Amino acid sequence: DAGVIQSPRHEVTEMGQEVTLRCKPISGHDYLFWYRQTMMRGLELLIYFNNNVPIDDSGMPEDRFSAKMPNASFSTLKIQPSEPRDSAVYFCASSTRRYEQFFGPGTRLTVL
Amino acid sequence: EDKVVQSPLSLVVHEGDTVTLNCSYEVTNFRSLLWYKQEKKAPTFLFMLTSSGIEKKSGRLSSILDKKELFSILNITATQTGDSAIYLCAVDSYGQNFVFGPGTRLSVLP
Q: For each of chain B's 110 residues, which pLDDT tens digit applies?
């Protein structure tokens, strides 16, 4: 099993640009989570899906952030327009049970 | 607002020592408490606790929950350098997202 796959692994962009982060969950997992981790705020849950349906997006910081899961094997997190304070490591995680989440390697986003 | 506090924030020990990491929480509609280990990259799941007083054990790691006093401890016995990591505590609540604590950074020296 390849585990959770995230792309890109590193992204450097300029303020105002659109950023799209991608995630392929482990096959058979019906939960998918997007997290953000920074030194200041730690690990924060942004949104999670169950069976491709967004269940709770209360952690999404503002309207510039959006997430989609068009099918069971793919999800995106989009930031438009990006700002320097969005710089962080973004993790995708998947699970069959809500709590035993398997994390991907993360995408390190730097917004200049 | 739901809150998870961990202590200590940082800890340095020598191989063979036993450590106790603490996690306290204030949440409404508690569902479960989770422990994760984060080495260089992504967190990995350790334990999920839902009931008070029942110890979960995996090798040299063990954890217990006290729902009355709203805390959990994670014990690591006979520490090894490979135990060096950030240990994250998170609480899951009904109707709320997971809330993570700041983590305890454990360094085990040879």
A: 789 999 999 999 999 999 999 999 998 889 999 999 999 889 999 999 998 888 999 999 999 999 999 999 999 999 999 999 999 999 998 877 789 999 999 999 99
Non-local CB neighbours of A62 within 8 Å, separated by 6+ positions = none
**Beta-ladder partners of A95:** A31
Question: Would you say B108 and B13 are in contact if contact means Cβ atoms under 8 Å apart?
Answer: yes
Gap from B80 CA to chain A (nearest CA, Å): 24
Cis peptide before B102 (omega within 30 of 0): no
Q: Which amino acid is at A17?
A: Q
Q: Which residues of B touch A (CB under 8 A)?
A: 32, 34, 41-45, 48, 88, 90, 92, 96-103
User: Could you tell me which of B86, B110, B107 has the C-alpha nearest to residue B12?
Assistant: B107
Residues of A in CB contact (< 8 Å) with B are: 42-45, 48, 56, 58-59, 91, 93, 98-106
- A106: nearest CB among B41, B97, B99: B41
CA-atom Rg of chain B in angstroms: 13
User: Which one-letter amino acid corresponds to residue A97?
Assistant: R
Say if the Cβ atoms of A99 and B48 lie within 8 Å.
yes
